[in-house]
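Summary for the lay section of the report: proteins are chains of building blocks that fold into shapes. Here we show the chain for ABC-type glycerol-3-phosphate transport system permease component and then a coded description of the shape we predicted for it.
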Amino acid sequence: MSAATLPGRRSATAGRALRKWSLPGHFVLAIIAVLTYVPAYFMIDNALRSGPAMQASPFALATEPKWHNFSLAWQASSFAYPGTIFIVVVSVVGIAITTLASAYAFARLRFREKEIWFYTVFGLLLIPGFITLIPLYVQMSDMGLIGTRWGLILPYLAGGQALGVVVLRSAIEAIPEELFEAAKIDGAGHAWMFFSVAVPLSMPLVIALALLNVVGLWGDYVLPSLILQGDSSTVSVAITSFTPPPMTPNLDSYNVQLAAFSIASVPIAVLVLVMMKYFVSGLSQSAVKL
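The coded shape description reads as follows.
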């Protein structure tokens, strides 16, 4: 009987050990969560306060909300939203289409020196983006794209290729070969197999990558500040270049900037909440297949 109950005793001992460490683990996770949301609290709280009140106590609660800060913030940055949405949508859709096609080619087609070309693309992940800023600016200037939205879209398309191709290639290679063999028996070519087999089965991972790209491109400041100026600026550039209106010379623009950042965070927050299950599914699929 003692031998029969030995596994149960081990399981109970393991459970007690797990419970022993669960409280410290939850405590550490709670601290990390608080530290993660402190910047968001600081942004929203001080967006509802005046400049002197923020300077006196930056983390105090806004007991008398200054809602006009959001009105001024929207007036200062609303012009940039249509252009920013156009740039992000075109870039993300373009990245999804081109990376899927390239990943399918690397996963399913046979051509000379395929692995060399793949690892060349993979090597792009090892190059820091800021190193290429000056050559990129010169190239966009030579192409006459400074001051145009395509001067941002084309670099975004190029910059999103490496990660997408590497991840999606692994996802397509993990699709059971029997599905492609069945399609070949039915007379399907690569185009049909791409759209009917590879794309649907890779869609959760495509959505996860698209969401990552949306978050990154929506908040990008460095490249838009070099390429676009004035009325064609993106949201991030428009917010950081905000100046107080002439009729309010004593207005502290920092509070209005925080209000503008709060407004700009809403679309991303809503998108993440709506697409979270697809994002988690895509990351899980990527973890299993990689």
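Put simply, here is one thing we learned. The radius of gyration is 25 Å.
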